[in-house]
Amino acid sequence: MDRLNKIFELQASFDESVQNRAPFNKWSKEDQVVALLGHLIQESYETRNTLGVVITGERKWWKKHTLSAEKWGSVHEELIDCLHFLVSAMISAGLTPQTVIEAYEKKNLVNRKRQAEGY
């Protein structure tokens, strides 16, 4: 929990510096979350592209798929960018580290039950 709190604190501090600018600060909470999720999707695509996957979800069959340590570093960086936008969206939507953990645990139980039942 302490580490999740730290991530939320760091993101909230960063968000104060970038989200207080127009036009973002003039938008409704809903529009802010939509914008942040759009950036999350973009970062997800960038991660997939780094892994050699085109927008359709197909592998680039004409490329070698063994990633170098440098490429894995790029994948890690893109995933952290995803986390930045996800946490920012969570904060904008009113989630806290505690509510995230509670919701995650609850949904995890649902998902485990579904898998046990052949979902």
What does this structure look like?
The model has no long low-confidence stretch (mean pLDDT 91). By secondary structure, the protein is mainly alpha-helical. The chain contains 4 helices and no strands. The protein is globular.
Ordered list of secondary-structure elements with their pairings:
Blueprint: H1 2-18, H2 29-50, H3 69-92, H4 97-116
Summarize the structure.
With 119 residues, the protein is mainly alpha-helical. The chain has one domain.
- Weakly predicted, low-confidence segments: none
> Strand percentage, roughly?
under 5%
Count of DSSP H/I helices = 4
For the largest beta-sheet, the strand count, sense and barrel status come to: none
The helical percent reads 55-70%
Cα distance spanning the termini = 30 Å
How many distinct folded domains? 1
Mean pLDDT: 91
Structural class: mainly alpha
Order of helices and strands: HHHH
Shape: globular
